[in-house]
Amino acid sequence: MHDSTADALIVGAGPYGLSTAAHLKHYGLDVRVIGTPMEFWDGSMPRGMFLKSEPFASSLGAPFAGAAFTDRHPGWRNGRPIPLATFVEYGRWFAENLVPDCEDAQVELVDRHRSRGDFTVTLSTGEVARARAVIMAIGVRSFAHTPVVLSGLPPHLCTHSVEHRDLDRFEGREVAVIGAGQSALETAVLLADAGAHPLVLARTERLAWNSVPVPSPSLVNRALRGPHSGLGRGYRTWLWAEHPWATRLLPDGTRRHLVRTTMGPAGAWWLRDRLDERVQVLTGRVVTGARESDGGAVVRTAGRTGGRGEHHADHVIAATGFVPDLGRIDILAPELRGLVQAAHRSPVLGPSFDSTVPGLYFTGLASAASFGPVMRFVHGADFTARRIAAHVAARAAGLAAQPAVTPPARPAEETASEAAKEAAPQG
């Protein structure tokens, strides 16, 4: 039990929550992090998955050097995909060294105390905690999007890709995967690896693939294609990835278009060879409906240039992404949620990720409508953490934010043998 009011309480212990906690602690603030480190990544992402981002763009945000992914794995080169298990281990190493006091509990309700102006947070342990600021680092789970055209299927026949950590249960079964992005294509490959018979139904006329990274591009190549950033290569991409504050200055319609079109559905370059004859792919097919039939699913599609089809499957997986929606954050008390100004279902945020409710902040996908597409990726965590921590510290002190403590020691270094092993050439 905690009798005092914390300076900040963070809902969630994924990359954004851990990064923000590390920066808040750097200011010497009393911070509570509710959640098990990397639980969503470990429990809801499919086994065998690889990250799409490059190593330099897969780091959590720390207030000092030495805690990046490439510090933990100094031999990891660009162009070498990161296995899910390796990233989860890195995130937990980060938590152990920088945020060691995460609380293994769930937040059930966040409300604001009318007279005091601070927040009351009901936990699964039964405790009602108090905090002057609440940071919603809830990730994407609440925003899983299944198209309404699939609503004719019962839950046991149609699931979202985020519901599957283990695909082995589909061995020998026909599975229709809806989508054309990395999630859909990698899910289909992993289904094939598990002995299933996947069918990908893609709206696009042809699949898109990310380009193979060039280890050391020439000066001419860099000048023509632009700098390399956490979202890829290009001048505008670099701006959105490395300076998200600029995105917030754009008109609302421009930001929406930017979030919708930047880094559109595409497969990682390293996945292309694995999408082989085991996976049937039908492009240019728009799903128009679905129904249950004889214990299985029938998905109806229409071609963009005419023609209709019906596709039978034992199960349907909607790898159709995530759509932020303030109304789906049900741990916010209804009255409190009603005080948060929203536009197109996303909270309207200030320059420090602050909502229209003083002391209430939103991170990750929930902030993408304000700060752009980088907030859909781990790479946005450091910028977010720095902005929020400085603002919370300034509110707590009532003056311009300055670090209240000296930087903590760097996380424990790898032993010489471990570092040498990581740095050794990979076969």
TrEMBL record:
> Do you know which Pfam families this protein is assigned to?
Pyr_redox_3
Keyword annotations of the record: Oxidoreductase
**Disordered as annotated region, ranges:** 400-427
Q: By its UniProt entry, which InterPro entries does this protein fall under?
A: Auxin_biosynth/cation_transpt, FAD/NAD-bd_sf
The record's annotation in Gene3D superfamilies points to: FAD/NAD(P)-binding domain
Q: What is this protein called?
A: NAD(P)-binding domain-containing protein
